[in-house]
Write a structure and sequence with these properties.
It contains five helices and three strands; from the N terminus they run βααβαβαα. The protein is mostly helical. The chain has two domains: 68 residues, no CATH class; 41 residues. Pfam families: Exonuc_VII_L. GO terms for molecular function: exodeoxyribonuclease VII activity.
Length: 146
């Protein structure tokens, strides 16, 4: 805010100086001109980003924008928190999947799985051999009886 309360034309004349106008125009920050009272007009008013009728009005404009910005900042913080929570949940689930996969691929676990499979196949083979033996035995007994 470039401003000064009311005064005579001479009191406000510095806001008509070329150096002041150029400095306001070149500023990378937004400038609000608030010189004198509502009826006072200076060159600074024309080169500033915004003109406020009085310094008090300029302060209200800035503070209102600050409240809006704070509200927007809080909203963005909430969105960021939610996005972080979602990302954390996804990454945690992925880590659990990878840990389970690593556990399943551990040689000791693979050996246990193969041993269980071998036991199952051995049991099935024994049952098949027993049936084959029983079938052969029945055929043999049937031939003896005839």
């Amino acid at each position: 805010i470039v401003g000064r309360g009311g005064g005579s034309l001479e009191d406000l004349w510095c806001f008509n100086e070329e150096d002041v106008a150029r400095a306001i125009f070149r500023s990378t920050l937004p400038i609000i001109s608030a010189v004198g009272h509502e009826t006072d007009v200076t060159i600074a008013d024309f080169v500033a980003d915004l003109r406020a009728p009085t310094p008090s009005a300029a302060a209200e404009l800035v503070s209102r924008n600050q409240d809006e910005l704070l509200q927007q900042l809080r909203h963005q913080q909430q969105r960021l928190d939610m996005a972080f929570d979602r990302l954390f949940t996804r990454k945690s689930q992925r880590l659990k999947q990878l840990a389970l996969r690593l556990q399943n691929q551990h040689p000791q676990n693979q050996l246990r799985a193969q041993q269980a499979k071998n036991e199952q196949l051995t049991h099935r083979l024994q049952l098949a051999m027993l049936r084959q033996f029983e079938n052969t035995q029945q055929k043999f007994l049937a031939e003896i009886v005839q």
